[in-house]
Specification:
The protein has a single domain, classed as Tetrahydropterin Synthase, Chain A (2-Layer Sandwich), CATH 3.30.479. The protein is built from three helices and seven strands; from the N terminus they run βββαβαβαββ.
Length: 146
């Protein structure tokens, strides 16, 4: 089995603002990070170039991450202040992304599924093993595929 990783670090600038409205801590407040994403890909056999995936061919993945997270105010679909956040967007004050769940673990699952869907449509010999999302050097969450 062969594995390779693709990392989009904090320097890429996937800056998102969010809150976990259910938190009892300061995480209930709006705060943000330049998120970092690390994907692990796996294949039983390498391609004709001896690669699991063509790293240069993953621009679509970076684009998906930008569309979902970059300069977004990410809000949970059940946030009690959801209408207020929608109003901010309507006034041109924010680009709001509404997800079922918010937080590092949820972002890892969302990004994993983005990658998994696209990879399965393009490369039937490759599977996405995991996605790690890092808020900063001390905090990260990993979603492992089935």
């Amino acid at each position: 089995m062969f594995r390779s990783t693709k990392h989009y670090g904090h320097e890429v600038g996937l800056s998102a603002c969010f809150r976990q409205w259910r938190a009892d801590s300061h995480c209930k407040l709006l705060h943000g990070y330049a998120l970092a994403f690390t994907f692990v890909f796996e294949a039983k056999e390498l391609d004709h170039r001896n690669w699991v995936v063509d790293f240069g061919g993953l621009d679509w993945l970076k684009g998906e991450l930008r569309n979902a997270f970059d300069h977004k105010l990410v809000v949970a679909a059940d946030d009690p202040e959801l209408e207020y956040f929608k109003e901010l967007e309507a006034k041109g004050l924010a680009h709001v992304a509404i997800f079922r769940n918010v937080g590092c673990e949820a972002f890892a699952q969302i990004a994993f599924r983005m990658a998994q869907e696209a990879i399965s449509n393009q490369l039937d010999r490759v599977k996405v093993v995991s996605c790690e999302v890092r808020e900063h050097g001390a905090n990260s969450a990993i979603f492992l595929g089935p």
